Amino acid sequence: MALIEIKNLKKDYGDLHVLKDINVSVEEGEVLVLIGPSGSGKSTFLRCINLLEQPSGGEIIYDEKNILSRKFDIQHYREQVGMCFQRFNLFPFMTVLGNVMYAPVHLLKMPKEQARIEALELLEKVGLRDKANVYPDTLSGGQQQRVAIARSLAMHPKAILFDEPTSALDPELVGEVLEVMRQLAQEGMTMIVVTHEMGFARDVANKVIFMDGGYVLEEGTPEEIFSHPKHDRTKEFLSRVLSK
Amino acid sequence: MRVLQNLNFEKALSELLPKLLGNALEIVLFVSISSFILAILFGFLLALGRLSRFKLLNGIIIVFQEIIRGTPLLVQLVYIYYVFPLFVQIIAYFLGFPNYTASLSSVAAGIIGITINYGTYISEVIRSAILGIDKGQTEAALALGFSPRQAMFRIVIPQAFFNSIPVLGNYLLTLVKDTSLMAYITAPELLQTTQAYISQSFTTIESYTIVAVVYLVICLCLSFILKAAERRLCRRR
Ligand SMILES: Nc1ncnc2c1ncn2[C@@H]1O[C@H](COP(=O)(O)OP(=O)(O)O)[C@@H](O)[C@H]1O
Ligand SMILES: [Mg+2]
User: Fold this and answer.
1) What is the CA radius of gyration of chain B?
2) What pLDDT digit, counting tens, does each position of B193-219 carry?
3) Ligand located closest to A47 CA
4) Do B140 and A90 touch (CB under 8 A)?
5) CATH classification for the domain delimited by B2-236, as one of 3.90.180.10, 3.40.50.1390, 1.10.3720.10, 3.20.20.60
6) Composition of chain B by helix, strand, coil, percent to 5
7) Pocket lining: A195 vs ligand 1, CB cutoff 6 Å
8) Which of A125, A207, B57, B66 gets the most CB atoms within 10 Å of its CB?
9) Does the beta carbon of A167 lie under 8 angstroms from any beta carbon of chain B?
10) Would you state the pLDDT for residue B236?
């Protein structure tokens, strides 16, 4: 039974049909990597999954419930499906520790002391325990993204969505973020990752999806997609990004 | 020049200054502080109203703002002090209280007028500060599981207020100076006290000079405090 199953997902902005008919399922503990040219709808797809965008049609089944049904508790669902953004979006008026413990204290009603201990453990895990008491704007992009990952993890999510988590980073900072994500994957976190880091996709993904023009053009294991792409568009895209 | 020979700053200082620094200053500070706080609250409510999805509320607030911005504060003060009580009296008359006489103290009228006027301008400061917060902040809060309302009140608005502090500080400075308009509605603040003193002592040059210097000193002090506060807040980030 898939943790998240997306059926016939559509998203329109007026006359612009961004997602045309997406069918994807993600098993628990699976890492799904989405690749595709810019503007192909990858971000829109991720944002539909946690309802930052309202889909125009189709179904999204999470844990056997249709998240698009009217009675569905969206906030509770979002507590379980975290998201990390390209631009980190840390809260600038809170310290690093404050960022990580804020949601568990206010949403899970976790006692402050427990939240603090857990937050420090998570910061330890992403290698930033010594930065607990500084403000985010004093950190490098790579450090900020690792804090953002810790902030997501603090809610004990069942899955995390990543929208190009390393695209806003200087090249030398990409590795430290991917390293944390690799570790999460090893620990069995369910992840849906949009990325242009093909090395990461090849090593970590259980399944790779190539999106173009609002459709899933090709889906398979990293081996299938990277070594034996079937579709011409996939070959073209890969030769373009891999030659860079 | 006879006028110059007759100048008597010593007398004016010894008689006027105690009055200014006593009751008059107290009124200025009281009105400034209370109407500034109320104006921020009022402006905040107007800003929320403008940001809400209720078209009617939006329309009402826009009309209200245009009226306030399109008339001078002095006229608003006069209107609240002299005209508003008459309206209340008329309404009371029709409700069956023909002998009811309404009146408003000049200080109360001043606070109401300044609150409404400054609240209107401050509402636009706060509204644009709220709109200026990166959408990613709201999205990050939503993605964690906060409701749209929680994201607004816990994440966006604190940052919007923080970002508005320098502009609000400037408004406080002009607000303090604008309390002098209350002289026109008989509030015994600095300017009115000065004028009352002049009419009995005929020390025009001395008295107006003294009151101008008093305003200047107040504003310089305030400006200094605001700068220091801003610097501290900036360091906290
Ligand atoms: N809020 C929006 N309103 C209108 N068009 C949008 C909006 N968001 C995205 N789009 C359009 O949808 C298409 C896909 O965007 P996006 O999902 O961001 O692609 P990707 O992440 O693959 O680069 C683009 O053409 C973009 O211009
Ligand atoms: Mg994108």
Assistant:
1) 22
2) 999 999 999 999 999 999 999 999 999
3) 1
4) yes
5) 1.10.3720.10
6) 85, 0, 15
7) no
8) A207
9) no
10) 60
Residues of A in contact with B133 (CB under 8 A): none
Give just the sign of the alpha carbon dihedral B18, B23, B24, B28: positive
Positive or negative, the CA dihedral B104, B109, B115, B121 is positive
B237 pLDDT tier (thresholds 50, 70, 90): low
Domain ranges of chain B: 2-236
Alpha carbon distance A49, A162 (integer Å)? 11
**Comparing C-alpha atoms, which of A218, A178, A215 is closest to residue A198?**
A178
Collect all residues with Cβ–Cβ distance below 8 Å to B154 and sequence separation of at least 6.
Answer: A106, B141, B146
Please report the pLDDT score of residue A134 as a whole number.
97
CB A119 within 8 A of CB B185: no
Provide the 10 A C-beta neighbour count for residue B90.
11
Interface ipTM: 0.95
Residue to probe by mutation, ligand 1, list A9, A11, A16, most atoms within 8 Å of CB: A16
